[in-house]
Design a protein that fits this description.
The structure holds two protein chains of two kinds. By secondary structure, chain A is mostly beta strands. Helices cover 0% and strands 54% of the residues of chain A. Chain A is built from no helices and eleven strands. Chain A has strands spanning 5-7, 10-14, 19-24, 29-37, 44-49, 55-58, 61-65, 71-76, 85-93, 102-103, 107-112. In chain A, strands 2, 4, 5, 9, 10 and 11 form a six-stranded mixed β-sheet that branches. In chain A, a hairpin with a 2-residue loop joins β6 and β7 (61-65). Helix content of chain B is 0%, strand content 58%. Chain B has strands at 4-6, 10-13, 19-25, 31-38, 42-51, 54-57, 64-70, 73-78, 87-94, 101-102, 106-110. Classes of the chains: A mainly beta, B mainly beta. The A-B interface holds A 1, 3, 30-31, 33, 35, 40-45, 48, 88, 90, 92, 97-101, 103-106 and B 4, 6, 30-31, 33, 42-45, 48, 50, 56, 58-59, 90, 92, 94-105, 107.
Chain lengths: 113, 111
């Protein structure tokens, strides 16, 4: 099945640094979502975006729904050790049936204290 | 707080065994999904269901079957477990147009 192009695949950063990751697709999406997965757990929804151009924040996290509806980015400011995990983008393509999401491959984030 | 509950966090089964993974949601969601997650391969959809007794194959259905007799419960069945089915299994549910709520996952090891 189709997957989103998510980059980077992994990041190693120092505590306090800002982080940016993005997802792109050749198809148009109605909804963009960002999830975080802690080690050994299921993914948890961080931010949901429903309109092109929408910019939404959740604490230190900010995400945007691209104007073309084919991309989205997630920024994390002032990273802390508990930000460690895998971040997934996901989208609901136009015309998809039964709410089946398309996922990116994930960005593995490591934060050094 | 809304929940998707997977019956086991860790399972160890023998090759050839029939394995049942159970998932229950309390949100009255229409859609339920089973994924497997392997390093470097991301999340791969095995099966999903959009209503009671309705099911659709995902991207990797071979070796698996599913059952949805009640709206809140979606079971994944490994007909004859094999070592290449050792993986993390994630269940999710959603309502139309919304994102998924995931369970905590079941880490299955087949020996």
């Amino acid at each position: 099945g189709q997957q989103l192009n998510q980059s980077p695949q992994s990041m190693f950063i120092q505590e306090g640094e800002d982080v940016s990751m993005n997802c792109t697709s050749s198809s148009i999406f109605n909804t963009w979502l960002w999830y975080k997965q802690d080690p050994g757990e299921g993914p948890v929804l961080l931010i949901a975006l429903y309109k092109a151009g929408e910019l939404t924040s959740n604490g230190r996290l900010t995400a945007q729904f691209g104007i073309t509806r084919k991309d989205s980015f997630l920024n994390i400011s002032a990273s802390i050790p508990s930000d460690v995990g895998i971040y997934f983008c996901a989208g609901l393509p136009v015309g998809t049936s039964y709410g089946k999401l398309t996922f990116g491959q994930g960005t593995i984030l490591t934060v050094h204290p | 707080d809304v929940k998707v509950t997977q019956s086991s966090r860790y399972l160890v089964k023998r090759t050839g065994e029939k394995v049942f993974l159970e998932c229950v949601q309390d949100m009255d969601h229409e859609n339920m999904f089973w994924y497997r997650q392997d390093p470097g391969l991301g999340l791969r959809l095995i099966y999903f269901s959009y209503d009671v007794k309705m099911k659709e194959k995902g991207d990797i259905p071979e070796g698996y079957s599913v059952s949805r007799e009640k709206k809140e419960r979606f079971s994944l069945i490994l007909e004859s477990a094999s070592t290449n089915q050792t993986s993390m299994y994630l269940c999710a549910s959603s309502s139309r147009g919304e994102g998924y709520t995931f369970g905590s996952g079941t880490r299955l090891t087949v020996v």
